[in-house]
Amino acid sequence: MRQSDTELGTPNIVFSSACHPCWDKACLYFDVQPRKLPIRHDQTTLDPAEVAAACDANTIGVVATLGYPATGRYDPVLQISEALDALAAHGGPDIGIHVDAASGGFYAPFQPDAAPWDFQLPRVVSIDASSHKFGLANLGLGWALWRERQYLPESLTFQINLLGGEPAPTFSLTYSRPAAPVIDQYATFLRLGRPGFVGLVAQASKVAAYLAEAIAERGFRIWGDGRDLPVIAFGTHGPDGPWMRHFAAKLRERGWQVPTYTLAPDAEDTVVARIVCRYGLTLDLAERLVRAIDDSIGELDAHDGPLPDIHRDGFAH
Predict the structure, then answer these.
(1) Distance of CA 248 to the CA centre of its chain
(2) How many CB atoms neighbour CB 134 within 10 A?
């Protein structure tokens, strides 16, 4: 238990500026100092050396992201673990890693070439994952896993016996929840098995590789190439946000919703478009998307004069 902030200092947690907003919320709610490392134009994931340098005696953990929302990239969890090992070996603090695998938790386990990122690494003490992204379950189902029970403090659990019988421990932030999503996930595991998920991941990765190559051939800069999550994030080679937004609007006119947004705060002058290759996106559909990209580029290139305002009409599925 902490004695006082005067004696021990304010606890801090190290994560990147491109992390999900939930980490900012957690720091605010639990009075923890966020140490946010920049994700710059020349770097799309955490730098292990910078992670180790940001840790001190008051660091309570490092967050590594397995699948950034903006680019689909995986933080190098193995290299971050090795950097923290070296830090501890030279007398520095012994820091654990939480892997935020909300996006990649149901994808990376089925990739044959994914680097170690989970409990294979002794320094990884906890993992979270969302089932509704690549786990094929209903929206709202998520998981939190701890390496050992010691990493879930007793102070965070409560004993309840409202349903009768012996008191049962609970640590959830909400109370009554339906069991249907859990049963849905279990049924999907039984139906597909590991071979089924491996096949789905292989197909999505194949489609992502095709799209990344096709988009790069058309002169775009690639920020996420689909080698981690099947996500292609791309933009122009210069600060041309308005053009990218018009490009997305032209794709929308052709029936494709490809969102545009700025990158993390340290690269926020960059506007990218993002394509997520879900399991239903076949190569045939991807080829149609590439044709729509060509048509949209051609229409914008043929436009004489300044681009007009973008009108956001309803989308017809």
Answers:
(1) 22
(2) 25
CATH of 200-299, one of 3.90.1150.160, 3.10.20.30, 2.60.120.10, 3.30.1700.10: 3.90.1150.160
Per-residue confidence band for 204, with pLDDT thresholds at 50, 70 and 90? very high
267 CB-near residues (< 8 Å, 6+ apart): 39, 40, 41
User: How far apart are the C-alpha atoms of 203 and 2, rounded to whole Å?
Assistant: 49
What gap in Å lies between CA 205 and CA 277, rounded to an integer?
8
In the 8-state DSSP scheme, what is residue 236?
A: -
Nearest to 278 by CA among 236, 232, 315, 245: 232
The CATH number of the structural domain formed by 5-182 is 3.40.640.10
CA atoms within 13 A on the CB side of 310: 17
CA 217 to chain centre: 26
Q: Can you give the pTM of this predicted structure?
A: 0.89
Q: What is the per-residue pLDDT across 46-78, written as a single tens digit (0 to 9) for each?
A: 999 999 999 999 999 999 999 999 999 999 999
Per-domain residue ranges for the chain?
5-182, 200-299
AA letter at 230: P
Strands (DSSP E) contained in 166-295 are 168-170, 221-225, 231-235, 260-262, 271-276
CA distances from 307 to 211, 243, 300 (A): 27, 8, 8
**Beta sheet of 97-101, edge-to-edge order:** 33-37, 12-16, 59-65, 97-101, 124-130, 142-146
- 59 sits in which H/E element: strand 59-65
